[in-house]
Amino acid sequence: MDKFTQHEGIVIPLDRANVDTDAILPKEFLKSVKRTGFGPHLFDGLRYLDPYRDEQSNALRRPNPDFVLNRPEYAGATILLARENFGCGSSREHAPWALLDHGIRVVIAPSFADIFFSNCFKNGLLPVRLTAAQVDTLFAQLASTPGYRLHIDLPAQCVRTPDGTSFTFEIDAFQKDCLLNGLDEIGLTLQHREQIAAFEARRLADRPWLRADPAGH
Amino acid sequence: MTPARTLYEKLWDEHFIREVGSGLGLLYIDRHLLHEVTTPQAFEGLKLAGRKVWRIAANLAVADHNVPTSHRDREIADPLSRLQLQTLDANCAEFGITEFGLHDPRQGIVHVVGPEQGFTLPGMTVVCGDSHTATHGALGALAFGIGTSEVEHVLATQTLTLQKARTMLVRFEGSLAQGVSAKDMALALIGLVGTAGGTGHVMEFAGPAVRALSMEGRMTLCNMAIEAGARAGMVAVDDTTIDYCVGRPFAPTGQSLDQAVAYWRTLTSDPEAVFDRVVEVDAARIAPQVTWGTSPEMVTSIEGVVPNPDGEHDPVRRAGMARALAYMGLEPGVRIADIPLDKVFIGSCTNSRIEDLRTAAAVVRGRHIAPGIQQALVVPGSGLVKAQAEAEGLHRVFIEAGFEWRDPGCSMCLGMNEDSLNPGERCASTSNRNFEGRQGAGGRTHLVSPAMAAAAAIAGHFVDIRQFHG
Ligand code: SF4
């Protein structure tokens, strides 16, 4: 996983609440057995005017000029700004994979759905929770500032706007540490391998029915 | 004296191995269900790191999202779907994980199969790379959906690093009216608290109307806790729970059962336990629910009309409503009962169990689907549900009424296989999500209960199930 410390980039406004994971990456693209290659289908249903047929013909599809992702001024944007309850719906990690594959490193919203929020950290995508009023301010500034950029400082836990205002955000210390250092969470957990094994042995002895093995039937 | 605890707190304490960092717990995971869509990348990660599966017997795999629901004897046409199914087979074979294959009579939707087999039981931590894992909470278990990285983490360590959730008690007082079901309770609750209403919380469903539900009804309710934003839903253990579990293939027997039951009986919230939030709903006032928009919170009763966005003060919500109506092809003020339908889908992990099929069959028995209905599907939740329904003759009732009787899988709940809506088609569906494109690009979904879906198929439009009988 890539480390995350400082990030500055163009901001793309997605002025909607309840952006769901089916919208972020529709199910047509969940058949892949890989983690990459989802970028061209990020927001697929909103992004193209004609339906998807196959990968070969994808480049020939007509982009919807009204959808923000297709506007030239947001080309190369790396920060997504949205409204409440971003990422609701399914547990598909394909949603953060698609955002990352498209080049998004930060999503800013007043609130996120729980599973999406947790999935972001496993992939080096930073979800930033600001207040609804702060998000309003960012949308307003963005609307009146061509080439609007934000600076995200993870160690200092703040979002800096072009006029020098800075909004701080909360983040769990463990998750912050994982992002800053690009840590392998499984490796960290396995440092407690003996304690896990001891807990398990005790548990299976105390609650013997947990030993039921599907292979034994 | 130990302090009073909620059911969630008891389950948390029971599985807590140690603290890791600031307030995060490392929790032991008892059961892990796997399916073909969210696991390939996890197994790949495991292989790349040279890691093993920690406890093989804790895992059970079954393909469901992407499986055909007819002509299973033929090769799967879509090469991507085929590869995904083959990848699950190969990974399970390589790591020694038990899989119910496509031709196994026990194959079905993971959340139907787990409880049906007694693989998921009260008091367990149950996870799966699927948000509707909340379903298993109906057993008095702590069950929740995880992402693919966490699937890999569970495979490798049998644990998860978790933040303790807040607790929310949802009490359904009184009793449901005839014809009103657990699905209507779930939709009415989401209408009340919103799709983010439970964010950061685990919901416990309680009260007389929940006690009165069968296990299958409780599963429907817990299934949709995620649609209310909650991390998990759960119901305390009682006789209904224990009666359901006893005799299931992987459930304990003999002395081990006695020991299990004694423990399961402790899985209730203490009377003095304090929840972070309490919501009360009068079950008697719940009418059959129908969603009109593109989020489960966009819901009203069968007596209602499509709302007018102009009446909404919040600009973000107003824009969302207007977009939903445009997508759904609906005008404000239209009576829900006047909305004509093209297709009907009875299935999904929300409503594809035997009681759901019995309820739907009772509505359609001796009748025929309306001429305007182009397709009406019944997709049982598992091979065993299908066999049971056939033993009761329900398949004939459906077929004679003009329904198609399919093999088990997720099917038109998300349309990853060939069962999907065409652009503009309108469907009464017993599934759980009405997001744009969920059942097929451009498809329009109205979420309802099995009885309401069955009645809509016969009438060709929504009808009040309370007046439909007779
Ligand atoms: S039936 Fe639908 S909601 Fe349930 S697991 Fe399958 S796709 Fe997900």
TrEMBL record, chain A:
Please list the residue ranges annotated as the Aconitase A/isopropylmalate dehydratase small subunit swivel domain: 1-131
Q: In which pathway does it act?
A: Amino-acid biosynthesis; L-leucine biosynthesis; L-leucine from 3-methyl-2-oxobutanoate: step 2/4
Recorded catalytic activity of this chain's protein: (2R,3S)-3-isopropylmalate = (2S)-2-isopropylmalate
Which CDD domains does the entry mention? Answer: IPMI_Swivel
Q: Which GO annotations describe the biological process of this protein? A: L-leucine biosynthetic process
Q: Which UniProt keywords apply?
A: Amino-acid biosynthesis, Branched-chain amino acid biosynthesis, Leucine biosynthesis, Lyase
One GO CC annotation: 3-isopropylmalate dehydratase complex
Instruction: Kindly indicate whether the keyword Nucleus belongs to this entry.
Output: no
The EC designation for this entry is 4.2.1.33
The kind of enzyme this is, by top-level EC class, is lyase
Which SUPFAM superfamilies does the entry link to?
LeuD/IlvD-like
> GO molecular function, one example?
3-isopropylmalate dehydratase activity
Instruction: List the Pfam families.
Output: Aconitase_C
The UniProt record lists the keyword Lyase: yes
Please explain the role this protein plays, according to its UniProt record.
Answer: Catalyzes the isomerization between 2-isopropylmalate and 3-isopropylmalate, via the formation of 2-isopropylmaleate.
Family, according to the entry, reads as follows: Belongs to the LeuD family. LeuD type 1 subfamily.
Q: How does it assemble?
A: Heterodimer of LeuC and LeuD.
What NCBIfam families does this protein map onto? leuD, PRK01641.1
Q: Which PANTHER family match?
A: 3-ISOPROPYLMALATE DEHYDRATASE SMALL SUBUNIT, 3-ISOPROPYLMALATE DEHYDRATASE SMALL SUBUNIT 2-RELATED-RELATED
The protein's name is 3-isopropylmalate dehydratase small subunit
Q: State the species of origin.
A: Thiobacillus denitrificans
Q: What is the lineage of its organism?
A: Bacteria, Pseudomonadati, Pseudomonadota, Betaproteobacteria, Nitrosomonadales
TrEMBL record, chain B:
- The secretion signal range is none
Q: InterPro entries in the record, alphabetically?
A: 3-IsopropMal_deHydase_lsu, Acnase/IPM_dHydase_lsu_aba_1/3, Acoase/IPM_deHydtase_lsu_aba, Aconitase_4Fe-4S_BS, Aconitase_4Fe-4S_dom, IPM_dehydratase_rel_enz, IPMI_cat
> What GO biological process, any one, is recorded here?
L-leucine biosynthetic process
- Provide the catalytic activity annotation: (2R,3S)-3-isopropylmalate = (2S)-2-isopropylmalate
Record keyword Iron present: yes
**Family note:** Belongs to the aconitase/IPM isomerase family. LeuC type 1 subfamily.
Cite the GO molecular-function annotations of the record. Answer: 3-isopropylmalate dehydratase activity; 4 iron, 4 sulfur cluster binding; isomerase activity; metal ion binding
Q: What is this protein called?
A: 3-isopropylmalate dehydratase large subunit
Q: Which residues form the Aconitase/3-isopropylmalate dehydratase large subunit alpha/beta/alpha domain?
A: 9-460
> How, per the record, is the cofactor bound?
Binds 1 [4Fe-4S] cluster per subunit.
Pathway(s) where this gene product acts:
Amino-acid biosynthesis; L-leucine biosynthesis; L-leucine from 3-methyl-2-oxobutanoate: step 2/4
Which positions does UniProt annotate for [4Fe-4S] cluster binding?
Answer: 349, 410, 413
* Chain's role: Catalyzes the isomerization between 2-isopropylmalate and 3-isopropylmalate, via the formation of 2-isopropylmaleate.
Organism (species): Thiobacillus denitrificans
Cofactor(s) for this UniProt protein: [4Fe-4S] cluster
Please give the start and end residues of each transmembrane region.
none
- Its quaternary structure? Heterodimer of LeuC and LeuD.
